[in-house]
């Protein structure tokens, strides 16, 4: 059975590339692709020509944890998950001070870019890693400035929004390795979570935690201040 | 941005199972593919899921790249566009066939010279679309980036469903004449 009018191969090839054919027509076209080099060449030309409709689409960096998630999907054996986050409440309770210093924040330091609504100083107890965060609720712009410290060799630093008191965590992305400042776009659904919670930084495989939960050591932590 | 030859080399290494090549390809191309997925899906979290699925697909199909006759960025972006359109259609539940696969098209790929030529040719599609009646140029863009099927286009442009195909094909023929 032939569903298709082969007189207009040009139109047919374009329809195939555009995705306008029905499933039956697609099957017929694909059989033909296997045996008809001229038709294959027509389809290749339409594919090359039409892809340029994406030329003016701007490149937008995806959140870095995506790379870890791709690797995790393809190679699940490579990076076993280590532990959950059940110890967050413990960490943020009285014992926290022993492991991680929670440093009071001076909001004046953070007013460089407009008027942020929330700020946090995320610091390791010994000052080996200090990151200042400021968040503008309206624009969803979270700006992070690494004042000291860096990712360990072959690892990335990942930022977490910690919801208290349960200690559930939401990844906000990976800090840039090469620059002191990282800007994260935070969706409007997450903006309310900044109220009265905390930010934390852990070290993770390159690209970020493959599991969506922290797998490495928590290096720094800071409460979020409402400005 | 890595050169086309470098991208081609990465795809070849992926076909041999080199995970570092996949990481390098991700670094070189993920911003473009995320941009394309966002444009098609218009939803950040869906685009994030799509990008993951696209790289899984590129990894699994890298060994078939050589036989498909496309320049490397065309192949990568077409895989991404097709996947995003399929997701969009699943969301809309329309009638057209899934277009997930990039067909294997030819026995030999483009040489780098041909690829360069192709990219300068490609700059012309905008100009050539400008020579078509505005509704047809718009319909071609909507099919490519919006995943619209003939029924959608017929409704949008007020063309009877039994003539929409002829209507669009006239535009496609004119576009091919202009592109050469």
From TrEMBL, chain A:
Segment forming the signal sequence: none
Superkingdom to which the source organism belongs: Bacteria
GO cellular component: plasma membrane
Gene Ontology BP terms: regulation of translation
Residue ranges occupied by any Anti-sigma K factor RskA C-terminal domain in the UniProt entry: 95-218
InterPro entries in UniProt: Anti-sigma-K/W_factor, RskA_C
Membrane-spanning residues: none
GO MF entry, a single one: sigma factor antagonist activity
Listed name of the protein: Anti-sigma K factor RskA C-terminal domain-containing protein
Lineage: Bacteria, Pseudomonadati, Pseudomonadota, Alphaproteobacteria, Rhodobacterales
Automatic annotation (TrEMBL), chain B:
Gene3D superfamilies membership: 1.10.1740.10, Winged helix-like DNA-binding domain superfamily/Winged helix DNA-binding domain (1.10.10.10)
GO annotation terms (biological process): DNA-templated transcription initiation
Gene Ontology molecular function: DNA binding; sigma factor activity
Domain RNA polymerase sigma factor 70 region 4 type as annotated: residue spans: 124-175
Record bears the keyword Transcription: yes
Superkingdom of origin organism: Bacteria
UniProt domain RNA polymerase sigma-70 region: residue ranges: 25-93
Pfam families on file: Sigma70_r2 (PF04542), Sigma70_r4_2 (PF08281)
Keywords: Sigma factor, Transcription, Transcription regulation
NCBIfam families in the record: sigma70-ECF
Family note: Belongs to the sigma-70 factor family. ECF subfamily.
PANTHER family: RNA POLYMERASE ECF-TYPE SIGMA FACTO, RNA POLYMERASE SIGMA FACTOR SIGZ
Name used for this protein in its record: Sigma-70 family RNA polymerase sigma factor
Species this protein is from: Rubellimicrobium roseum
């Amino acid at each position: 059975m032939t569903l298709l009018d082969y007189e207009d191969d040009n139109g047919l090839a374009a329809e195939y590339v555009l995705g306008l054919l029905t499933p039956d027509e697609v099957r017929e076209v694909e059989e033909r692709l296997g045996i008809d080099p001229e038709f294959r060449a027509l389809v290749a030309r339409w594919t090359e020509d039409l892809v340029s409709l994406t030329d003016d689409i701007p490149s937008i960096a995806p959140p870095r944890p995506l790379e870890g998630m791709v690797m995790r999907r393809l190679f699940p054996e490579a990076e076993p998950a280590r532990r959950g986050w059940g110890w967050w409440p413990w960490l943020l309770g009285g014992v926290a001070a022993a492991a991680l210093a929670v440093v009071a924040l001076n909001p004046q330091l953070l007013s460089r870019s407009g008027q942020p609504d929330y700020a946090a100083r995320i610091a390791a107890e010994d000052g080996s890693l200090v990151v200042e965060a400021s968040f503008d609720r309206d624009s969803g712009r979270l700006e992070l400035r690494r004042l000291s410290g860096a990712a360990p060799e072959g690892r990335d630093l990942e930022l977490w929004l910690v919801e208290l008191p349960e200690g559930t965590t939401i990844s906000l992305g990976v800090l840039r390795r090469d620059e002191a400042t990282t800007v994260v776009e935070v969706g409007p659904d997450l903006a309310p979570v900044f109220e009265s919670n905390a930010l934390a930084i852990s070290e993770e495989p390159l690209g970020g935690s493959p599991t969506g939960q922290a797998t490495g050591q928590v290096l720094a932590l800071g409460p979020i201040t409402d400005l | 941005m890595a050169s086309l030859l470098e991208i081609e080399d990465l795809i070849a290494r992926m076909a041999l199972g080199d995970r570092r090549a996949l990481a390098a390809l991700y670094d070189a191309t993920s911003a473009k593919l995320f941009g394309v997925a966002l444009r098609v899906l218009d939803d950040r979290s869906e685009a994030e899921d799509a990008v993951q699925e696209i790289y899984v697909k590129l990894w699994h199909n890298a060994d078939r790249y050589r036989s498909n006759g496309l320049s490397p960025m065309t192949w990568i972006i077409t895989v991404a566009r097709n996947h995003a359109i399929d997701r969009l259609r699943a969301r809309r539940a329309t009638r057209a066939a899934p277009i997930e696969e990039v067909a294997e098209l030819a026995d030999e790929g483009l040489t780098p010279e041909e690829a360069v030529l192709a990219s300068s040719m490609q700059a012309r599609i905008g100009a050539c679309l400008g020579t078509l009646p505005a509704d047809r140029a718009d319909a071609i863009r909507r099919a490519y980036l919006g995943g619209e099927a003939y029924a959608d286009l017929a409704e949008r442009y007020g063309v009877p469903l039994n003539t929409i195909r002829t209507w669009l094909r006239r535009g496609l023929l004119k576009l091919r004449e202009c592109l050469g």
